[in-house]
Amino acid sequence: MAIDLKNKVVLITGASSGFGEDAARLFAREGCKVVLAALIVITTATFCSFLGPSSIAPPLRSTVK
């Protein structure tokens, strides 16, 4: 069963590298609106510009305490 993800909103934490970055690419490719968050905000903003207009990287720093 295929799931239509177009225009769904996805929040990706850890989006500046590794699994989070890969997940963001895959969801963007499927037509999702991707919201990126990570410890390294500047890297996330740069990556967001690479993904295109369907992604945003608000200045959110995701941390776990």
Instruction: Give the helix level as a range of percent.
Output: 25-40%
Head-to-tail CA distance between termini: 38 Å
> What order do the helices and strands follow?
EHEHE
Unreliable stretches covering 5 or more consecutive residues: none
Q: Can you give a write-up of this model?
A:
The chain is α/β, with parallel strands linked by helices and 65 residues long. It has one domain (9-56). The protein contains 2 helices and 3 strands, in the order βαβαβ. It has a 3-stranded parallel sheet, with helices on one face. Helix 2 links the parallel strand 2 (33-37) and strand 3. The mean pLDDT is 82.
Which SSEs are present, and which pair or pack?
Elements (H helix, E strand, L loop, with lengths): L8 E5 L4 H12 L3 E5 L3 H11 L3 E2 L9
Parallel strand pairs: 1-2, 2-3
Task: Write a compact overview of the structure shown.
The protein has helices spanning 18-29, 41-51, and strands spanning 9-13, 33-37, 55-56. It is of the alpha/beta class and 65 residues long. The chain is globular and about 35 Å long.
Key words describing this protein structure:
65 residues; 35% helix; alpha/beta; 2 helices
